[in-house]
Amino acid sequence: MTDYCRQCSLRIHGRDHRDLARLCKPGETVWALCEGCGEEVEVNQRGKRTGKKYSAIVAGTGFEGRAARIRAYAKAGMPAVLKREPSNPHDANAIAVYITVARWYTLFRPVEIQIGYLKARFAATLSKRMDAGGEIISAKISSLYLALDHPRVSLIIVTDW
Q: Residues 27-46: pLDDT tens digits?
């Protein structure tokens, strides 16, 4: 038997079979594998998707001293902050990626430092959703490869759509 989230069940079968319903209590959510979309999705008590998980690679990590910041502060599993930059002169869909660190010259108060941007193609899609009221639930660094001049930083992003 296959298990579908509510949206895939409606799309594939024309009605909700409630495959992923009642996996948790009302008001709670749980992560489950939907075999319709092939993704790990967060569903509520009714089996409706409440968030989508994306993988993304951070671009521009070798510019403006970002490589040194990434090597010094970035760690796998640490949260990231995504900020829209609609006034960016290079790309109106730009989404900057920041991490929060405590630095000695700020008396160890948390400060956000930029480590790059989401790649343009992905940012174009994500920015439209964000501008329409969609929200980033969480973003975190999933992996780092620091041996290059431009360190490779991968993110996991969870949204509310």
A: 677 888 888 877 777 877 77
Our CA angle for 144, 145, 150, nearest 5°, is 110
Listing DSSP states for 40-99 in one string gives: EEEEETTS-EEEEEEEEEEE-TTSTTHHHHHHHH--TT-B-EEEE-TT-SS-TT-EEEEE
Q: Are residues 37 and 84 in the same domain?
A: no
| 43: containing domain | 6-47
> Cα dihedral sign for 85, 90, 92, 94?
negative
Helix (H, G, I), strand (E, B) or coil at 31: strand
pTM for this predicted structure: 0.70
